[in-house]
Sequence to fold (255 residues):
Amino acid sequence: MRQRHIDQLKKIIFFMRGKYFYETHEVFAREKCEINGGSTAYDTAIRGLESFNNSIHSMLNAIEINLSHSTSNISEDLTSKDEDFEEICRDFHTWEDVVTLAVDAFKPCWDLDERQSAEIVMVTMSRIIEHVCENNGSRLLAYSKAPESECFIARTDRFRACYRNYVITTDIVAYKSVPFTKNREIPIPFRVPVFKINLKECSGMDVMHKCFVRELDTCKEETRSNLINSIFNIITKELGCEALLNKTPATHTTY
Fold:
C-alpha cells in the first residue's frame, strides 16, 4: 500500500515537471495572471509551483526512508499494517496542506468560475480525507483487509465500464476557451477545469454511483461497498448534486 502511495507521488512530480509547461507559453500565462490578479500574480504563482514541487519531493523522500526502515526490520510486528495506514493518513493531511498553499498561490491567476471550482475540489478532498482517515485510517485498513473475492476480480471490467459510461455520457468539467482565444496555449495549472453542475451531469454521476455499488453488492463486498458508497455521497453533496437530485426524486436513490 505504501509503495502504491509512493508511485502516485512520483506521477504527480512527473506531471508537474513534464511537458505541461513550456517557456513559450509564459506570455499567455503571464497575461492571464496580470488580467485577473495584477502585476505580481504570475511571479507569486511560479513561486507557489516551485514550493509545491519541493514539498512533494520532501514528502516522497521521507516516505521512502520510512518504507526502507520498515521493510528492513525483520522483527516487524502484527500492528505494522495499522501503523502503515496511520502514516498514510498523516501523509494525506500533509498533502492537503501542500495543495492548499499551491491553490492559494494560483488563485489570483484564475477566473472567478475557476476559483469556485477549485474551492469545490478542495472542500471535497478535505471531507474525503477526514472520512477515510477517521480513527487513524480504520476505514482504509478495513478496506485493505477485506478479502478480494474471485467475484470482485472478475468484475474489474464492469467497474471500468461504470466509469467509461459516465465519461461518455456526461461532460461535468471543461476547460474554458474564452475570454482567452489561445486558451489551449495556457498551461496547467494556470488554467483549471470548470465544473458544470446541472441535472444531466449530476444524474450521470448518480448512475455511475449506483453502477459501482450494484456490482460490489453482487459480490457481497460489503466493506468495499460501504466505503465507496460513502465517498460518492460526499462528492455528490459537495458538488451540489445532492440538492439538485433531491428535487427530482424519481431519478435519485440514496443508499
Summary: DSSP finds eleven helices and two strands in the chain.
